Amino acid sequence: MQYFKVLAILAALVAGPAYAAGTEDESETTSGADYQAAEAAILAGNFAEALPILTALTEAEPANADAWNLLGFASRKSGDLEAAGTAYTRALKINPDHLGALEYQGELYLQLMQTDMAKANLARLQGLCGACEEAEDLAQALAEAGA
């Protein structure tokens, strides 16, 4: 199993980040087989494959902010912006300081042309973690959007 984790990490480094590092709460649930299968599907760009896994996981573990965050990510990457927004809101209700959910929700706001909301998420991230990867990624997305 360790071999597959190393391969997934190497694949992510070579292909560029499919999702930000440090998006997890480091809870026990992030090490479960279903969560890992969803992460692997996302790393491979198979967002549609990850959706049913994450939907089932959030139904089974409704307080799992990490699963809600990944569900939001996979939904957004699949084009379902409404479902993404709902999932990020759930993740942030569970853990208002979830760095990944704040970053991804900010990226969703950019897609929805809600620049002020994205900037608010960036300010929140910077207040929580300074120049962490999530804050840097959202700042870059804002810059690329000309905001």
Structure description:
The chain is mainly α and 147 residues long. It has a single domain, classed as Tetratricopeptide repeat domain (Serine Threonine Protein Phosphatase 5, Tetratricopeptide repeat, Alpha Horseshoe). The chain is 72% helix and 0% strand. The chain has eight helices and no strands. α3 (47-60) packs antiparallel against α4 (65-77). The longest helix is centred in the C-terminal third of the chain and has 15 residues, at 115-129. It is globular. The model is unreliable at 1-23 (pLDDT under 50).
Topology as a string of helices (H) and strands (E): HHHHHHHH
Give the integer mean of the pLDDT values.
85
The residue ranges in which pLDDT falls below 50 over 5 or more consecutive positions are 1-23
- The top level CATH class name: Mainly Alpha
Could you name the CATH homologous superfamily? Answer: Tetratricopeptide repeat domain
The Cα radius of gyration reads 14 Å
Class of secondary structure makeup: mainly alpha
